[in-house]
Design a protein that fits this description.
CATH superfamily of one domain: Dihydrodipicolinate Reductase, domain 2
Bound molecules: NADPH dihydro-nicotinamide-adenine-dinucleotide phosphate
Structural class: alpha/beta
Number of strands: 15
Strand content: 15-25%
CATH architecture of one domain: 2-Layer Sandwich
Order of helices and strands: HHHEHEHEEHEHEHEHHEEEEEEEHHE
Amino acid sequence: MTTRRDFLDKMKVTALGLPLLYHSNPLLAHETPYQGPMLRVAIMGLGSYGNRVAEAMRECKNAKLVGLISGTPSKIPKWQKAHNIPDKNCYNYENFDEIKDNPDIDAVYIITPNALHHPQTLRVAKAKKHVICEKPMATNAKDAQEMVDVCKANGVKLLIGYRMHFEPKTVAVIKMRQAGEFGRIRFFQGQSGFRIGDPTQWRLNKELSGGGAMMDIGIYSINGSRYMVGEEPIWVTAQETKTDPVKFKEGVDETIQFQMGFPSGAVASCLSTYQMRHLDRFFMTGDDGFVEMKPSTGYGPIEGKTHLGPLTQPHKTHQTIQMDEMAQIILEDKKQLVSVSGEEGVKDMKIIEAIYKAAKTGMRVEV
Ligand code: NDP
């Protein structure tokens, strides 16, 4: 069993806080220059997050943006110029299956509305390219599982854009929990939300979003509870509130509070909303310590403290670390602290379905 002393020795935690955690973590530090192969990526969906990923990839050491897939022809020349992309690597939603014959693209990063992730992933997999897919990976668990199966059958990897799994402070906290620093975990609290604007956007259209705040932002509390507590929930309860049924139509959740129970007896209490500001916070307490992170899943810098003091790992652009790490996962089978595989995404989809069912029926639902 790992003792607190073992942990402190191993992690070189100082009395002043945790400044050495980051430097002692070879997973994140990029201390030694990367010598391996380059992952050549095409982005599908040149929207707001696609642009953020593309900009972040400028700083990547082992992943490179080389291709574009878009349904808006006018975006292509601007993106080509900005990222030096040749004509032969540009596709639209009708012809992107032809990517199969393009030896210069290894992977496609799907950054389109949620409901498109499933059919697009199947097509990319059948074109024998690796898939990186944004969260939520699908709009239901059945489609999500099919994505995993089809990628496997076609011999390509499927990774989900869980950028927090690579974020330095988050990784440090997960390592502390694994080392027993918090003692037995008793309680996790996740608050994930923002106030959504434009009522005509796809996020409020069930056909494209698959749901509401839960699919978009509540998923951070679900996924976060799993990597923070280190267990899979076995039951959920949930309560939905809707203050604006015009903006949030049938099947588009505005606010859901939900609770989860874990095998050890730990419990979680979470809030997912499109109606409240300033909600980006994780708190976890165990018998020997606590951690509070706020912001906890935004683009950062993430901030937080534990019973030992502030988390001081330096901020790095999330999507840059993510893509550098994903390149190594895809090309070199690099193992991660917390998986970003399709299977992980399926687990979140099953929990989302259980939460929707619990909110609808008022019953406790087993996961
Ligand atoms: P945007 O609306 O800004 O962009 C989506 C893009 O998808 C569009 O610009 C468009 O690109 C393409 N698209 C294809 N079909 C449609 C359609 N029918 N309606 C609208 N757009 C379409 O969305 P985001 O970039 O914010 O979100 C995209 C995905 O990324 C979502 O799944 C979201 O959950 C995820 N995301 C993840 C984040 C994270 O931190 N991991 C943060 C933000 C979003 P084109 O014109 O090139 O075809």
